[in-house]
Amino acid sequence: MTWTASSFTWQTTSTSAEKMMICSGDQMPSGSFGIMAEQGPETISTDELFKGRKVVLFSVPGAFTPTCSRRHLPGFVGQVDAIFAKGVDTIACTAVNDVFVMDAWGKQHGVGDKIHMLADGNGEYVRKLGLEVDASGWDMGIRGQRFAIIVDDGVASHVAVDEPGQFEVSSAEAILEFL
After folding, report:
1. Is residue 7 assigned to a domain?
2. Per-residue H/E/C for 63-93
3. For position 137, what pLDDT does the model report?
4. Is residue 3 a part of any domain in this protein?
5. Which residues pair with 147 in a beta bridge?
6. Are 77 and 173 in contact (CB under 8 A)?
7. What's the pLDDT score for residue 20?
8. Residue 74 placed within a domain
């Protein structure tokens, strides 16, 4: 199977009546992510991640997938210093993947301690954000949409969600324009 945007359509998994998508000015929902620590997998809460901090949280549909691996994560790796220079305390990448996959993917791209690799293994957090998609057509199950959110002390100050099959508004360069 060829993995192209034109051969697949993302489908959101909830209607607007069921769940609203996070918007600028909204409080980020509470939750947690898996992270890899020196001793093995651990959990970080959204309070630990967002409280009193300026955070850029970006999401990819899947670690090791083409656009995510060639452009999205590498873009943030390449712009990490410029983003921190704009007053950001933390850059975090999340995907509906397990902590071991996120850790291996981060190591492959040399993120070091500059970008937190957050596992949303069951898609619970993207569901709370209203940004989940059904990628069953590609045998990927429920995933997160491609997005980036600038979070100021737990409040979403900028929400950028790419259209299905696109990679524009959630790029590191696009986020730099809003910082």
Report:
1. no
2. CCCHHHHHHHHHHHHHHHHHHHHCCCCEEEE
3. 60
4. no
5. 59, 161
6. no
7. 85
8. yes
* C-beta atoms surrounding 84 within 10 Å: 16
**pLDDT number for residue 116:** 98
Q: Provide the token pair at 125.
A: 């957090």
22, 35, 49, 68: the active-site residue: 68
The model's pTM is: 0.87
pLDDT of residue 11: 44
**Which structure tokens are listed for 107?**
């190591």
Local mean pLDDT, 10-residue blocks, the chain (179 residues)? 39 48 97 96 98 97 76 92 98 96 96 96 95 68 84 98 90 95
Question: Is there a domain that residue 9 lies in?
Answer: no
What is the torsion angle, in degrees rounded to the nearest 10, for the CA atoms of residue 93, residue 97, residue 102 and residue 104? -150
What's the domain count of the chain? 1
Judge whether 93 counts as a catalytic residue: no
Q: Nearest to residue 156, comparing CAs of 27, 30, 32, 19?
A: 27
